[in-house]
Design goal:
Structural class: alpha/beta
Oligomer: single chain
Bound molecules: adenosine-5'-diphosphate, magnesium ion
Radius of gyration: 30 Å
Strand content: 15-25%
Number of strands: 23
Number of helices: 25
Helix content: 25-40%
Length: 735
């Protein structure tokens, strides 16, 4: 018998679901609403779990408070309204061990979804009501609808795959399973980029077997090896993409070899220097405090990159308050010392303005060599370019950049505007990189060469205080080299965080704010996040400020900062808060990132549950920025278990890396990468913490495959087209 030729995965992406049996217009639309358009989407719609029918938990065996998945058949449905007019749907469900109750609040549509005779899997916490076991608002996967459509006995085996079936789309897990089974059978053998030796080396099963065993396991032991292979493939594609990006950069770059000298970093405050010394030396000698060990170490890594021929492409990660700004400043000084220019890009105007002011202050006494200047020297010039810079000033700055008379330009994404040109751009620093999209980072890097008359690729340093675990970094920022600042400046005390819930605790919080102000310190009050409307958010901030100024904080100088204010208003308010004319700043999240007012020792975050964990950690980082004890108060309760976990995690630790792990566990990996260009995320089964070893194996193999540039790379490049947009594909994958 001759074997059918193996089918490449990408070919499945070209087959619309409507080509399958039993899929007409209505089901095509229902599948589309779940993000499933083609056969590839279908076979990567993986089961939420596999239920072993012979070993399934029965409700009667579970104790109250336990969470469980229980399979049962609906025997009774009743819908009514509660006294306060909430929709209530009540089911009786029987499983082999007896019957239990399921109730849904505010989900009237469940009555239609779950008529008598439906078999479904209910996930939830087991409770008890009037002596009977009950689940409230469980997650439901309908397995077989009431008409028993295609209750094909051959498919009711020992193991049942339970698919995340979107109830609202009206598809059952059973139907999805049927479509997937048909897809796999009709696809036949799938092309495998890994030969038998490679599979043996990493203990992987064959790809076709993996898809079959994961969707249609015959026994429990089929599942784990199948999953392992599918996860490996997800990582392998991702790491191959990263390796290809690196290869492209390495072969196409025209880097600059900067004259960065590592010994300059040894200079301590107060050291003697002369005007002939390197700018970095003169700066460090005159700076009020010494670099921390971690700052010096990462600067060593940065200087090594600067001095190399390939352009730097580095991510600097350091917790809030670890002193990333100083690191970037020293790197910028090394570059501008040799007649090149630097860019510092920040995500908000408030932050850009703060950076510009700090930089100007720090370089006030420094000069650079400039043959055009009288005496061959002139002061270092730092310009600020934002969306609000007035036309005339903007023209001057643009001219200065074009001639090389401006050394460093600080700004927001206004810097990306077309008319910004440089004489000789040497280094781009992006602060708070997580606020910028991956595309913006790529644009900046690519535009650097085009915008610079010198025509070379500038070095790139991106900084983030949103710490992500190392494995996550390997995935999200795998094309960047990583430097980590793992030490805070000396003398920092851990911020004391508490969650004030009772009226007494809240009153104590405001008393504490008054005490801190009385002791000469300052406070932030963060107003609730209002989804979707900056204007409503601003109004509520205005109201809150008035309320506090007349109430709890009466007699204190209370300022206001929100996103709807004009730039110069924002600047003026920040300036008076910095100067201490204001005691308290009531603000929206505009202060989230980077704002540095070391005198602030207390921050109150209202309705804290509305903020994500990373954002809360960032907000808290506005205090604790010098050697005084600082405090963070979280107000409001938590409407969900998840929100409670988040707030408790924040109370429990100050460590951004721990919080990042918690965050990853709470939100899953999908959110980490955001939507990929083609709207498809390739990490469906992978779990970065659980599968770290596989990720490392995949990275090793991907590097070998790209290096070898043979058949495996051809297969992988082809399937990567499922995830990468055509533009990028055209230059990454040589045909
Ligand atoms: P982040 O890493 O969050 O951007 P910053 O760069 O804003 O942190 O630094 C936080 C604070 O720590 C600033 O007030 C800064 O002046 C101070 N700082 C930075 N480096 C040092 C150091 N080596 N010793 C003492 N204080 C430092
Ligand atoms: Mg910062």
């Amino acid at each position: 018998m001759s074997e059918a030729p193996a089918r490449p995965l990408r070919a499945l992406g070209d087959v619309p679901v409507s080509h399958l049996r039993h899929i007409g217009e209505k089901r095509t639309a229902a599948l589309a609403s779940m993000g499933i358009d083609n056969v590839f989407d279908l076979i990567t719609h993986y089961p939420r779990l596999h239920v072993d029918r012979t070993r399934r938990a029965e409700l009667s065996e579970l104790s109250v408070g336990e969470s469980a998945a229980v399979l049962g058949e609906v025997t009774k449905v009743a819908a009514r309204r509660t006294r306060n007019a909430r929709a209530l749907v009540e089911l009786s469900v029987s499983d082999d061990g007896g019957s239990f109750r399921v109730v849904f609040f505010n989900q009237a549509w469940r009555e239609r979804q779950l008529p008598v005779g439906t078999q479904a899997l209910f996930f939830g916490t087991v409770g008890e009501y009037q002596g009977r076991r009950q689940m409230t608002n469980p997650i439901v996967d309908v397995i077989v609808g009431p008409s028993g459509e295609s209750r094909d006995p051959s498919r009711v085996g020992r193991m049942v795959s339970i698919y995340p079936a979107s109830g609202k789309a009206g598809l059952t897990s059973w139907e999805l399973g049927g479509f997937i089974e048909e897809s796999l059978r009709r696809a036949g053998p799938l092309l495998d980029p890994l030969d038998e030796d490679t599979r043996a080396r990493f203990s992987l099963i064959d790809r076709t077997a993996a898809y079959f065993q994961y969707h249609l396991p015959r026994e429990r032991d089929d599942v784990a090896p199948a999953k392992r292979r599918l996860i490996f493939d997800e990582f392998l594609r991702l790491q191959t993409l990263i390796a290809l990006r690196r290869r492209y950069l390495a072969t196409h770059a025209q880097g600059i070899t900067h004259d960065a000298d590592l010994t300059d970093l040894e200079v301590a405050p107060g050291a003697l220097t002369s005007t002939d010394d390197a700018l970095v030396r003169r700066f460090l000698a005159g700076h009020p405090f010494a670099l921390t060990g971690a700052q010096r170490r990462v600067l060593g890594e940065i200087f090594t990159d600067l001095a190399a021929t390939l352009p730097m492409n580095r991510l600097l990660q350091g917790d809030v308050g670890s002193g990333k700004t100083l690191v970037s400043l020293v790197a910028l000084l090394a570059v501008i010392d040799h007649a090149r220019q630097g860019v510092l890009m920040a995500p908000t105007e408030v932050l850009a303005e703060q950076h510009a002011a700090a930089l100007r202050r720090d370089v006030a006494d420094l000069t650079v060599h400039d043959p055009r200047a009288l005496g061959g020297c002139r002061p270092v010039r730092v310009a600020l370019l934002s969306g609000k810079t007035r036309t005339k000033e903007r023209q001057e700055i643009l001219a200065g950049l074009n001639e090389g008379a401006v050394d460093v330009v600080v700004g927001t994404h206004a810097l990306l505007s077309d008319d910004v040109r440089f004489a000789s751009l040497g280094l781009i620093v992006i602060d708070e990189q997580h606020r910028f999209g991956v595309e913006q980072r790529a644009t900046l890097r690519d535009q650097g060469r085009v915008r610079s008359r010198e025509g070379r690729d500038p070095d790139l340093l991106v900084m983030t205080a949103t710490p992500i675990p190392r494995t996550a970094a390997m995935v999200a920022f795998g094309d960047l080299d990583l430097s980590v600042i793992d030490e805070l400046p000396n003398g920092r005390l851990a911020i004391r965080t508490s969650w004030a819930q009772s009226d007494d605790e809240v009153a104590a919080c405001w008393r504490h704010v008054r005490d801190e102000v009385a002791a000469g310190n300052r406070a932030f009050v963060i107003c609730p996040l209002v989804e979707g409307s900056a204007r409503v958010e601003a109004t509520s901030a205005v109201d809150e400020r008035t309320r506090l100024a007349l109430g709890e904080l009466r007699g204190l100088a209370v300022g206001l900062l929100h996103g709807q204010m004009k730039s110069d208003e924002k600047e003026a308010v920040m300036a008076s808060f910095r100067a201490g004319e204001l005691d308290v700043l009531v603000a929206t999240v505009v202060v989230e990132v980077g704002v540095d007012v070391p005198e602030a020792t207390v921050i109150v975050i209202e309705d804290a549950w509305r903020f994500g964990l990373a954002q809360l950690h960032q907000l808290r980082g506005r205090v604790g920025r010098r050697d005084a004890q600082s405090y963070c108060y979280l107000l409001g309760d938590a409407p969900s278990e998840e929100a409670r976990t988040r707030l408790q995690a924040l109370v429990a630790t100050n460590d951004g890396f721990d919080l990042a792990e918690t965050d990853l566990a709470l939100r899953g990996e999908g959110t980490l990468l955001g939507a990929r260009q083609k709207g498809r995320s390739d990490l469906r089964l992978a779990n970065l913490r659980r599968d770290e070893a596989l990720l490392r194996d995949a990275q090793t193999l991907a590097q070998e495959i790209v290096q070898a540039d043979g058949g495996a790379l051809e297969v992988l490049s082809d399937e990567l087209r499922l995830f990468v947009d055509d533009d990028e594909a055209s230059y990454l994958f040589k045909s």
